[in-house]
Amino acid sequence: MKLSTRFAWASAALLPVLIIAAGAALVPWESADLRAERDAYLHTRADSLAPQASSLAAQTSDPASQVRQALQAPDDSVVLAVHGLNVAVGDAPPVARLPTVDGAFSVREGLRQWRGYSSSDAATKARVWVVEPESVLSAKVRKLRGRVWFMALIVSPVAFAAGGLLGRRTIKPLTVLRERARLVSSGTGARIALRTGVDEVDDVAGILDAALARRDEQELRIVEAWQAARSFAATAAHELRTPLTGIQTALDVLEHPGAEAADRREALDDLREAHTRVLGLLEVLRALSRAELARPEQFTEVDVAELVETALHAARNRHPGTSFDARVAIPAGTPQAATLLSWSDGLRMVLDNLLDNAAIHGGGSSAQIVIGLSREPGFLLLTVDDQGPGIPPELRSRLFDRFVASKASPGFGLGLTIVAQVVALHQGTVQAGPTPTGRGTRFLVRLPSQGFPKEGL
Questions:
Q1: What is the pLDDT of residue 260?
Q2: Which residue range or ranges hold the Histidine kinase domain (predicted)?
Q3: For residue 39, what pLDDT is reported?
């Protein structure tokens, strides 16, 4: 059953019940008022007729007719007692049942009952009883009850229609929410983004949007993980083919019964070289997979200047014949100036790969590698300058692609790919071009300022 129909039925049932309940409380209250009004009227009427009782009874041989003519209200029931003469007009009880004292009274005769008031005149010794059958008041009360039930009966269909209309207007925001949810359930990445002015509905829409965002994020992570697994498998198969082929050849030489000692030594050297290359490749692939699966949730506050010093120290150990220098252009007295909310391991991989690339292609052991750290409005800048021959023209457009390396490179063509992926994770950019002096190559990394947790740029 629709919610609007529930509203309609609830209104159709509830409003008549409320009317009947109100009537049940009102009818006794109104009955008491009617009784009080009746008693007051009988009292007033009896007091007004008592002084006239003797004259009304003595003016004609038909005193009852005279009394009827004198009554301002023809429906009154009156009994006169004057000098032993009893005159009854209207629906009155037997005179013998009437009280002989002044005041209100009730009289029952069989199934009938009257309410009246007795009043006397001291001068003429006349007494007047003004009475009213109880059925008159009972009829008024029954009429009042009938009107209550009639109103409840009339209100029921009206309440049903009004409840249905109110229900449709009330649930209209829910209907809009349902339609929006139906549209976004196809998984297109859309959001409900509903603002109806009804806090509860808007809260539900916000919760659904958050759930959809988490769903899309999970799906994206699953797809990325699947693509990373495929990429890892393809990369491993591509790069392991050559060293594994060399290993197989060396094993064949070692197993050959006629192989000479020199051939065996050369085969062992090839095995060691292939083993070293396989280990290096696995380490690079591990770093590549970490860069592909990294998430902003891994970000922490990192002192980039300190990270640069650590990376330089490690690079000097890896390349003892190369000169490394650091130029940090951060204003003095600002300890948080180089603090960035970032992935520490990822930035370390960026620095290590750029320094290794510069050491290998940067002009030999006599060249100097300079790493710079500075700021400009909106960005933290990392630069690595070498003194090498520059980037070959055929590699400039594909420099950060996978497996792109010069013929003289001993690497696998994945180091700069890792650099690009980590920088993209930080919503930054990386560029390669000539140094300001025109000699060698400069790699420029821009990391955006929203990564600065302590201080804006």
A1: 82
A2: 235-451
A3: 93
Q: What is the mean pLDDT of residues 365-378?
A: 84
Please write the tens of the pLDDT for every residue from 401-450: 766 666 666 666 677 888 888 888 888 999 988 888 888 899 999 998 66
* SS3 annotation, the chain: CCHHHHHHHHHHHHHHHHHHHHHHHHHHHHHHHHHHHHHHHHHHHHHHHHHHHHHHHHCCCCHHHHHHHHCCCCCCEEEEEECCEEEEECCCCCHHHCCCCCEEEEEEECCEEEEEEEEEECCCCEEEEEEEEHHHHHHHHHHHHHHHHHHHHHHHHHHHHHHHHHHHHHCHHHHHHHHHHHHHCCCCCCCCCCCCCCHHHHHHHHHHHHHHHHHHHHHHHHHHHHHHHHHHHHHHHHHHHHHHHHHHHHHHHHHCCCCCHHHHHHHHHHHHHHHHHHHHHHHHHHHHHHHHHCCHHHCEEEEHHHHHHHHHHHHHHHCCCCEEEEEEECCCCCCCCCEEEECHHHHHHHHHHHHHHHHHHCCCCCCEEEEEEEEECCEEEEEEECCCCCCCHHHHHHCCCCCCCCCCCCCCCCHHHHHHHHHHHCCCEEEEEECCCCCCEEEEEEEEHHHCCCCCC
- Nearest C-alpha neighbor of 244 from the set 270, 274, 214, 269: 274
| Cα 186 versus chain centre, distance | 20
Largest pairwise CA distance in the chain: 170
Q: Are the CB atoms for 340 and 447 separated by under 8 Å?
A: yes
Whether pLDDT at 335 is above 60: no
Model pLDDT, residue 238: 66
Q: List the beta bridge partners of residue 105.
A: 116
Average pLDDT, the chain: 78
The tokens for 253 are: 């030489």
Exposed/middle/buried for residue 317 (C-beta within 10 Å: 0-12, 13-18, 19+): exposed
- ∠111-112-114 over CA atoms, to 5°? 150
Average the pLDDT over 144-169 and give the result. Answer: 79
End-to-end CA distance of the chain: 59
What pTM value is reported for the model?
0.47
Query: How sure is the predictor about 454, in pLDDT bands with cuts at 50, 70 and 90?
Result: very low
Q: How many CB atoms lie within 10 A of CB 337?
A: 21
Contact criterion met (CB below 8 Å) for 196 and 171: no
Quote the tokens at residue 408: 């003289």
- Are the C-beta atoms of 430 and 400 separated by less than 8 Å? yes
pLDDT bucket at 384, cuts 50 / 70 / 90: very high
